[in-house]
Design a protein that fits this description.
alpha/beta; 35% helix; Rossmann fold
């Protein structure tokens, strides 16, 4: 073999070793990253690093009904994953996003606003440690299925807590707001429920709303309204992509137009995806979701 041929072969081998590829097999996972401690309870997340990073972070929250009883209060989101949302997670990683999957506190032991606070705490932690995770601190996206979408959306509509600026922890001074949110079959107005969602909502909020005429006034000012994402939408909030199956019996499809009207009325970027499906886990176009997030966060 001529020297030039050998040189080319060695150079090709070296470049093949050093240059990244788009294979998901080369993605790297960090497990059980502690993003907060509350009264001795560790809040942890898994972090999925892409083979070819965009330097953009996305928080991904599986659905849970906000409830931990059937799962024994374990970190089931991390250890067992979610067979429905995992393919989307992998597609986002393949697209170059660094994906953060936080475990949160759950009802009935931990009621509203505990899970919301946990997701917002996770965003502050991610933003403060952006360099460690190889991402830019701004902007950040959030994706969630079912009640996970509710938690993601709350991070997109709630203002930063001014009291945290007095905290001794510099991490708490970072913003908890995300700039782009994708919700899938998610509740946005907790005063509008199907029977199944209603039971979870009562557990989540720890309060059963009256089921008579007084409910109209109750839902305007009570905790059901406070815990609803639609209540908090303002013109400086995140962009939204709302996905829902038209025949969803778990979380009624009526939730989508309610939130869409609020987002549209605030003048925020909005993409609505209505899927002809009776499933609470409708089929997803992963590339469409990844491309939309890229468009909002920038590549």
């Amino acid at each position: 073999m001529k020297r030039s041929t050998v040189t080319v072969a060695l150079l090709s081998l070296l470049l093949g070793t050093l240059l990244p590829t788009t294979s998901n097999s080369e993605a790297r996972k960090e497990s059980d990253v502690v993003y907060g401690v509350l009264s001795g309870l560790s809040l942890v997340m898994d972090v999925y690093h892409p083979p070819v990073p965009l330097r953009r972070g996305v928080v991904l929250i599986p659905g849970s009904g906000w409830d931990g009883r059937e799962r024994g209060y374990t970190d089931w989101q991390l250890k067992n994953g979610d067979s429905y949302i995992n393919p989307l997670r992998d597609a986002l990683v393949d697209s170059g996003f660094t994906v953060f999957v936080p475990n949160t506190r759950m009802a009935p032991e931990h009621r509203f606003p505990a899970p919301v606070d946990d997701v917002r705490r996770a965003v502050r932690f991610i933003r403060f440690h952006a360099a460690r995770f190889g991402i830019e601190p701004d902007p950040i996206g959030a994706v969630g299925h079912s009640t996970g979408g509710h938690l993601a959306a709350m991070a997109g509509v709630l203002d930063d807590d001014p009291d945290l600026q007095q905290s001794r922890l510099p991490e708490e001074h970072a913003s908890s707001r995300v700039q782009a949110v994708v919700t899938i079959a998610s509740p946005h107005d907790l005063t509008v429920n199907t029977a199944l969602l209603w039971a979870f909502t009562v557990s989540f909020l720890g309060e059963r709303a009256p089921m008579d005429e007084s409910f109209t006034e109750y839902k305007r000012e009570g905790i059901y309204a406070e815990a609803s994402t639609v209540t908090h939408v303002t013109p400086d909030d995140a962009a939204f992509m709302l996905i829902h199956g038209t025949g969803d019996a778990n979380v009624t499809f009526k939730q989508l137009p309610i939130m869409a009207d609020a987002v549209r009325g605030a003048g925020l970027p909005l993409k609505v995806v209505e899927i002809e499906s009776d499933s609470h886990a409708p089929p997803l176009n992963h590339s469409e979701i990844a491309d939309w997030i890229k468009g909002q966060l920038g590549e």
